[in-house]
Specification:
The structure is a homodimer. By secondary structure, chain A is α/β, with parallel strands linked by helices. Chain A has one domain: Rossmann fold, CATH 3.40.50. Chain A is built from 13 helices and nine strands. In chain A, strands 1, 2, 3, 4, 5, 6, 7, 8 and 9 form a nine-stranded mixed β-sheet that branches. In chain A, strand 6, helix 11 and strand 7 form a beta-alpha-beta unit. In chain A, helix 1 crosses helix 8. At the A-B interface, helix 9, strand 4, strand 5, helix 10 and helix 11 of A face helix 9, strand 4, strand 5, helix 10 and helix 11 of B.
């Protein structure tokens, strides 16, 4: 298991985004089981300590009817990053693994790719050559794998891929590589009257088909990056055709913009793990009255998952880690704060 | 009361869009009262007839558990146009009335407007000159009245305006000029497990502050046109600054795109009143299996409201009226189908 791609600046901007997939797998430990546990301890996979206490304290404050920090139910908006916050993002974003697999699956119809970069690099598993193709190469890969089809077709492709693809290290479907403590947190917040949203740099239509089943978050509560679409009536049936043009990058300063566009209210709690989440946490917590909560998941457990932060190519956590100290955002030390990482641990 | 503006092509594209306002007024007859009535007749302001029957029949079919047309609750998505479908749009879009009033309110800070078109025309109530300024003039008016401020500032401006502005014919706040039969329909659908969304060519932030109070539709279920925003930290507080650039026009073929972006599922029912709603109704009803429902509100009552369709400058209903016949969409004849138009009738 080595870091797969070394691009000088792997940034969400080059991973554009997308649309579709479908209810997928799999073992999973969904809201129901988490809520049953919540009768006693709503966060059983969290070790006792300052982080867990800060979550419980925040929720108690905003839900205490006559308390000074009470927040009406309709304003209990919580936003969650996805990659690295709810599921794994190493050794590369799962959506990128999807794109590389798609290149291989599509290769028989594109014999010219054998000698054409960046595709040849993908087909040869030549990661150095792929990295050498840079941002331009990555954009080309995303364009051919994510566009030039209808939203329904893309949804099916993603769904089929997720049903069979396995993470190489954990030998599991990706939808099992979601963090059990975060599933409990999502369920706990919803049981406390919160509406939970995903606000991810990943493709909106790459997430929507499975977020309801895996996270309990319906499609209309998923915010993400997107490409442009065109409405067409084909053989009497309306379709949306996916175009190879970026529509919106839901990362960094794009996250508050995406939140405003899709939700129309400021969250009172936000959860992230990288510098891409900095502005979302600022938008949720700064310059606003009342109780606010920000949390950063810090990947510190190389044994059970991965350990990375300031120098990582995916999910770089540097400025936001410093900001957490200044702004009193909670920081999860995964190794210390989480009893288990995955449901199968 | 005369038609105020005569532009050769008043199109949603020129009315760009926007953001904010706030919970506003007023008498109103909200979900609660409508739902109390629903015990007996869920649609008491609708006259018996084919239109009302088609609504009741559709809802019965999709909610009958073991029936052939049953639709699970999470897929019961209904989308509503706003202008001309839920509230009035004559003699001009209410958002345009807002923009013209704003020009007058801002004029003291812009002495140069006295001699500069299109502003002079607005200040002189010279509608001919305003019309002569064409689309370019209208874009200028929208830009100065809707941009160059934070989203919070815009919300306050819209809120304050709605609290005092009165429609000239009805001498009422605009938020009272909502159609009582449609309020009952919204409440009935929600009571039947539907999630109701607004999908309007109007500005998303012009609607969000009052749609929950007036329609029972929260901000995150409002889709509309928008301008671009920029995230900034000002004096330690994060803001979104409204820029004079169009981001998205949620009209015509933009409506299915907006629906896909914000909702991520196809509606099974859609409600509109103009050619701007054609593609939304197609997206909701055509080429899909199961029960689907499309409805067009046809303004036929010059006495109680307005009568207009194929030649109207606002809310032109021409192609979509023909399409309704072909596609078996219900067409509300307001004069015949609605017992009353407004709550105060």
């Amino acid at each position: 298991m080595k870091p797969i791609i070394r691009l000088p600046a792997i940034d969400r901007r080059v991973l554009l985004s997308s649309l579709a997939m479908l209810p997928v797998l799999s073992v999973s430990l969904r809201s129901n089981s988490a809520m049953a546990q919540a009768q006693s301890d709503p966060l059983p996979s969290w070790n006792d300590g300052a982080t867990k206490a800060s979550i419980l304290d925040f929720v108690a404050r905003v839900t205490t009817q006559d308390g000074p920090y009470f927040v009406p139910v309709d304003q209990r908006i919580a936003t969650f990053d996805n990659d690295g916050t709810l599921w794994i993002e190493q050794p590369m974003y799962i959506q990128l693994a999807f794109a590389l697999d798609r290149v291989k699956a599509m290769a028989p119809m594109h014999p010219e790719w054998k000698t054409k970069q960046p595709f040849a690099a993908v087909l040869d598993n030549d990661l150095k050559a792929l990295a050498a193709s840079g941002e331009k190469g990555l954009v080309e890969i995303i364009a051919v794998t994510h566009a030039d089809m209808t939203t329904a077709e893309f949804e099916k492709i993603v769904t089929d891929w997720l049903a069979t693809a396995r993470d190489r290290r954990f030998k599991r479907p990706y939808t099992e590589l979601v963090y059990q403590p975060m599933l409990e947190l999502l369920a706990y917040l919803r049981a406390s009257g919160f509406k939970t949203f995903i606000v991810s740099g990943g493709g909106i239509e790459f997430m929507r088909p499975w977020t309801e089943r895996i996270y309990g978050i319906p499609p209309e509560q998923v915010v993400g990056s997107s490409i442009k679409t065109r409405f067409e009536i084909k053989d009497g049936a309306p379709t949306l055709f996916r175009l190879p043009d970026v529509n919106f990058i839901d990362d960094k300063a794009g996250k508050p913009i995406g939140i405003n566009s899709h939700i129309g209210r400021r969250p009172i709690a936000a959860f992230g793990n990288s510098d891409g989440d900095l502005e979302m946490l600022q938008w949720a917590t700064l310059g606003a009255s009342g109780a606010r909560f920000g949390l950063i998941v810090h990947h510190t457990d190389a044994e059970r998952e991965y350990a990375y932060d300031r120098d990582s190519h995916f999910g770089k956590l540097d400025v936001a880690l410093d900001a957490a100290a200044v702004n009193k955002w909670a920081v999860v030390d995964m190794k210390k704060d989480w009893k288990r990482i995955f449901a199968f641990d």
